[in-house]
Automatic annotation (TrEMBL):
Record keywords, A-Z: Hydrolase
GO molecular function, one term: carboxylic ester hydrolase activity
Protein name: Alpha/beta hydrolase
Similarity comment text for this entry: Belongs to the AB hydrolase superfamily.
Domain spans labelled Serine aminopeptidase S33: 2-223
Amino acid sequence: MAHGLGGTKDSGLEPFAEALADGGLDVLAFDYRGFGSSGGEPRQRVDLAGQVEDYRAALAAAASLPGVDPSRRVLWGVSLAGGHVLTAASGRDDVAAVVALTPLVDGLAAGRLAARHHPPSALLRSTAAGVRSRVGRPVMMPVVARPGELGALTLPGQLEAYTALAGPTWSNEVDARIGLELGRHRPVRHAAGVRAPLLVQIADFDRSAPPHAAAKAAERGRAEVRHYPCDHFDVWPGRDWFGPVVEHQLHFLRRHLTTSDRGRMPADTASQ
């Protein structure tokens, strides 16, 4: 389990982990390289390929933990990480299930969606910051800011929603070059290679991760799909749709992990 853009494991993931642990699963939540409690340099730079490798490393680490059945490992991701789990699981036979919550699976589609909701001047400012960061010294910008300010997420309500989740290791800054790199980010292409049962949970009014792109990935991945009449942050702890989202995840995982050949999910396990 890992976070989305600029997020850390202490920023809203714990309630998901606790709910899944209460349902009988062990949970391994981790921070990407350069973020939160993880090491690595440079700090606060979103390395898209590196984050997928971090998922694969976490998958391997989980297999070595006491009491873990390597044949029943699950990849769970939200937002940007919802695309990462498709890439990390593609082509593998040792993943038992995949959960992609409000996944960002197509950077080009996300760019078009951003153009609908932001004035051109705002997009030009973030693009210019990204260019400066790529050709010179790193340029940092806020992960989330108020409308009209420079930032990765600046739609009305996003600053309040994101900062309400913020944990002690979270820092409201990210290397601005991510805005340039997201255009080439298309984990939707890997969805057809996911062999494990796949759950895709879509916020139908998502202003950050295009819901139509998530639906396309779900179709390619032959996924079970759940829809919620809400925006991107409304599935998080403290919001209206957190409960149904977790309930659907548990229902999905119980069906696919509790089988005659795999044995039953343990009824009482601790969160890692």
